[in-house]
Amino acid sequence: MSEVKVLNTGAKYAHASAGSLQNIEGKLFVKDAVGATSCEISFGTLPSGAAVPFFHSHKDNEENYIILSGSGKFQVDDDVFDIAEGSVIRVATNCDRNIKCTSTHPMTYICIQAKEGSLGNFTMTDAEITERENLL
Ligand code: ZN
Prior knowledge:
Largest sheet: 5 strands, antiparallel
Bound molecules: zinc ion
Distance between the termini: 33 Å
Strand content: 35-45%
Radius of gyration: 17 Å
Order of helices and strands: EEEHEEEEEEE
Shape: globular
Number of strands: 10
Low-confidence stretches: none
Strand order of the largest sheet: 3-4-10-5-8
């Protein structure tokens, strides 16, 4: 049974790890381990031929699925399309979704769930270059 372990924390950060993604069974949620306040993050795996055993829909949050390995199919309401390593699927609120692995090896993916429409400034409209000494 895999779990997310907190490895380092400071006043302004938390570092947790799920370890090898090949060892994850089902879904592993990360928000609580790192104290995330803007999104839920989960790692997911599906063995060959498996789909999530139910459809679900979200009222407030969109989901962004990032496929890390494997390939398969994704369904949103009655639309079905192929997905593979490198795919990113954004799913809006108030629709049904499911994911299936059709590759011979397991599918691993990340799902990031955040409030739909909540992203304001991002990347260089939010970030500032600072003058910190590089200790790396
Ligand atoms: Zn969901």
